[in-house]
Amino acid sequence: MIAFIWVSIALLATWFVAVLTRDVRRHRHDLTAGRWISTAVIGFVTNFFDVLGIGCFAPQTALLRFMGQTDDRKLPGTLNVANTPAVLLQALIFITIIEVDPLTLVLLLLAAGVGAVVGAGVVARLDERRIRMTMGFALLITAGFMVARSLNWIQGGGDAIGLAGAALVIAVVVNALLGALMTAGVGLYAPCMALVFALGMSPRVAFPIMMGSCAFLMPPASVRFIAAGAYDRKVSLIIAIAGLASVPIAAFVVKELPLDLLRWVVIAVIVYTSAVMLRAAFRK
User: Fold this and answer.
1) Are 189 and 53 contacting, i.e. CB atoms less than 8 angstroms apart?
2) Residue 80 has pLDDT above 80, yes or no
3) Contact at 8 Å (CB) between 143 and 268?
4) Which of the four, 13, 49, 136, 283, has the lowest number of CB atoms within 10 Å?
5) Residue 196 to residue 210: CA distance in whole angstroms
6) What are 160's strand-pairing partners?
7) Is residue 155 classed as helix, strand or coil in its secondary structure?
8) pLDDT digits (tens, 9 = 90+) for 108-134
9) Taking the complete model, does pTM exceed 0.90, yes or no?
10) How far apart are CA 39 and CA 233, in angstroms?
11) What whole-number distance in Å separates Cα of residue 26 and Cα of residue 215?
12) Which residues contact 219 (CB under 8 A, 6 or more apart)?
């Protein structure tokens, strides 16, 4: 089954790259001169810490919005398209180095992909006000999970590397829901880690499950956003390239950092950005 995952990720990557390349070539005029360096720094730094478990959707939302890099309406699509290449690489790395029950892993990854296809179709059609509301609440949910994790409110965990019976069914259903929510900007890492802990699995297996779920859900979701033109082409392309550069450094060179203080800073920024987006959404 691991071979099936490898082949599936390779096919998804090929499909995604082909669709993105065709769309970018058709809209070359959108790749105008601008904040290339600052966008690349955002992509490099956020994907670096993404590998270490911080997550990149919420920090990128805050930074891109603070620096005026893209329209709010295009944020969900931009986040998905921009981070797909880095996530595909992360999935290959963590699935290779951390053992997980193959059946559990395959079912959870497929569930996330199905959820994403449904979610992306809905999000891509939302107007700017609804996008702001959706992402504002999504950021609050993400911050809540990050706070719970930082304060050790999420209890559980064990030594299991797989699931069976009712626990497996619950995991599949919940991961499909998380896949749908991720297309709206709710980061998958924190809630997926909470799910893994709650079902008694080893904390280590959260990484291949998280990365693998994103690898299966983000290409099909991104293709839907690309087809709808609901993403920022220049920003997505720059972050994609920068993210691919930072992932191997974080995974193989740095591996681990003391991230407690950084996590609280990120939480504060996320809450502030959520408040700003919700205020803009509810303003007449």
Assistant:
1) yes
2) yes
3) no
4) 283
5) 10
6) 201
7) coil
8) 998 988 888 887 777 767 776 777 787
9) no
10) 12
11) 26
12) 12, 13, 15, 16, 84, 88
